[in-house]
Design goal:
GO molecular function, one term: metal ion binding
CATH superfamily of the largest domain: Phosphoenolpyruvate-binding domains
Helix content: 40-55%
Radius of gyration: 28 Å
Largest sheet: 8 strands, parallel
Number of strands: 14
Pfam families: ICL
Number of helices: 18
Distance between the termini: 32 Å
Protein name: Isocitrate lyase
Structural class: alpha/beta
CATH class of the largest domain: Alpha Beta
Strand content: 5-15%
Shape: globular
Catalytic activity: D-threo-isocitrate = glyoxylate + succinate
Organism: Alcanivorax nanhaiticus
Length: about 525
């Protein structure tokens, strides 16, 4: 963009219309720049390109991994990106994650729900649209401050300052970043998946994550009772998402194929196989069951499957579900991942029981034997006890090395008694380096935390409540919240401005000139924070 050239171009358009005499071309250009994306589909196209560039950069240098945090409200997502720009100067390789878990728990009209795809289908797209609406407003807010600073520089006759600010406007980096959006197991048949994916893309999603569970038996990846589907069923849904991207012109949209097979021991149906060794036969070969050599042993209602050259009677539960062999989970993960990549998926997601790099690497290495550029989106899940996991990993590593660990009780390593110990310090280093190490060793392109802001909202509320309703009273807010906002330079301390008051005042001036009735006058109490 070029602020000066855009004003010149729009001046010609306005000048050609005699009745537009009160329209200021600079004001119109400012409004245009504050609204970089005319539609949310434009956002999807812009961010798909960004993600593809980031994926290529990671392939060339695995230190260039990407990160995100799950956000359950547009304001939370907005503040996250504002903070990223404040602390790091750029939003590059920082995304948003939209968790189906948080949609179910926090955004459903039914009220709080478990992560079982029971929330309304439209809620996910609604949250994507909301997040991008708030991110666009963050652009408008930040640019508005630059415009006001430019006006101050003009009034002061400071040409150097004007040039500096115009350069910032011309090279402005948007808060609008990719969202990895969770479509769960597709919310029904492939047509339902296509319709929902289309709605999500129209809301701005450039990347959709889909899992290989049965949609009407969907469970959180960190809960029991997960039921997977045969590959043909899952691939049909991957195709449905791709068709949705292509229909809407997002030709480089990104699909993340998630497998829950490591923790899922059940299938709802036996795959339809037409010849030995085909994909369905491979799926069925993992079924638990007993080989049938004598037809007279077959009972009424038994199901028989010929797989891997044998006739077996699969283990069938009272629920009608079939059991996989307990030792087959990693083999199923590898087959799922290779199959997904070979049939249209771009990235992989493997749900694991613990954050263990060696374990993740073992699976990725096997996948890369067939698909050398395989990359993961990895869930740094709050369902893991991160402190205990890494303390136990260090304990096990030290024990294996022959180091004396007799001063530690492995089962009690979460105890605060160990917080100042050598083991705890080493475990914290492992935790601190987990993302870097996993990106380098285990092919993790993107690290996310699914529901961190669910937990931070609860934690900060608990801290405020304890003081405000206790002895601290108003000091709990003044010292624990507002003073911290001021000290840390958090823009929300001027909440009227953050909500768009100054933008609105400037627009009023564009529209009405000196007759504008503005809210930001000398009697606005927000002025108490001007010098902070």
């Amino acid at each position: 963009m070029s602020y000066t050239k855009d004003i010149e171009a729009l001046s010609s358009v306005i000048g050609a219309n005699s009745t537009w005499k009160d329209i200021n071309p600079e004001s119109a250009v400012r409004m245009r720049l504050q609204n970089r994306f005319n539609t949310h589909l434009d956002i999807a196209k812009f961010n798909a390109k960004t993600m593809r560039e980031d994926m290529a950069a990671y392939d060339a240098d695995n230190s260039l991994y990407t990160q995100s945090l799950g956000c359950w409200h547009g304001f939370i997502g907005q503040q996250k990106l504002i903070s990223i720009k404040k602390h790091f100067g750029t939003t590059k390789r920082r995304y948003l994650y939209l968790s189906g878990w948080m949609v179910a728990a926090l955004r459903s009209q039914f009220g709080p729900l478990p992560d079982q795809s029971m929330h309304e289908k439209t809620t996910v797209a609604d949250l994507i649209r909301e997040l991008y609406t708030f991110l666009k407003q963050a652009d408008a807010w930040e640019l508005n401050h630059l415009y006001r600073a430019l006006d101050d520089a003009k009034e002061a006759g400071d040409a150097a300052k004007q040039a500096e600010i115009i350069d910032k406007i011309d090279n402005y980096e948007t808060h609008v970043v990719p969202i990895i959006a969770d479509i769960d197991a597709g919310f029904g048949n492939p047509e339902a998946t296509y319709l929902m994916a289309k709605q999500m893309i129209e809301a701005g999603a450039c990347c959709i994550q889909i899992e290989n569970q049965v949609s009407d038996e969907k469970q959180c990846g960190h809960q029991d009772g997960k039921v997977t589907v045969p590959h043909a069923d899952f691939l049909a849904k991957i195709n449905a998402v791709r068709y949705a991207f292509l229909e809407l012109g997002v030709d480089d949209g990104v699909i993340v194929a998630r497998t829950d097979s490591e923790g899922a021991g059940l299938t709802k149906q036996i795959a339809v196989s037409t010849q030995e060794g085909d994909l369905a036969d491979q799926y069925n070969s993992f079924l638990e069951g007993e080989e049938v050599t004598d037809p007279s042993t077959v009972q009424h209602g038994d199901v028989l499957v010929k797989t891997a050259g044998k006739l077996i009677k699969p283990t069938k539960l009272a629920s009608g579900l079939f059991q996989f062999r307990r030792d087959s989970n990693i083999d199923r993960v590898v087959l799922d991942c290779v199959t997904s990549l070979q049939n249209g998926a771009d990235l992989l997601w493997i749900e694991t029981p613990t954050p263990n790099i060696e374990h993740i690497k073992g699976m990725v290495d096997r996948i890369r034997e067939q698909e050398p550029t395989a990359k993961l989106v990895y869930n740094n899940s709050p369902s893991f006890n991160w402190t205990l996991n890494f303390r136990q990993q260090v304990f096990d590593a030290w024990e294996k090395e022959g180091k004396d660990v007799s001063g530690y009780d492995r089962a009690r390593l979460m105890s605060a008694d160990y917080d100042n110990s050598e083991l705890a310090a080493e475990a914290d280093k492992w935790c601190q380096n987990f993302q870097r190490d996993a990106a380098r060793e285990a092919g993790v392109f993107h690290h996310l935390i699914t529901l961190p802001t669910y937990h931070t909202a609860a934690l900060s509320t608990d801290q405020l409540v304890e003081g405000y309703f206790g002895e601290e009273g108003m000091l709990a807010y003044a010292a624990g919240v507002q003073r911290q906002e001021i000290r840390r330079g958090i823009a929300t301390v001027k909440h009227q401005d953050m909500a768009g008051s100054n933008i609105g005042d400037d627009h009023k001036e564009y529209f009405s000139g000196e007759a504008a009735l503005k809210a930001g006058g000398k009697h606005n109490t927000m002025g108490q924070f001007e010098n902070n």
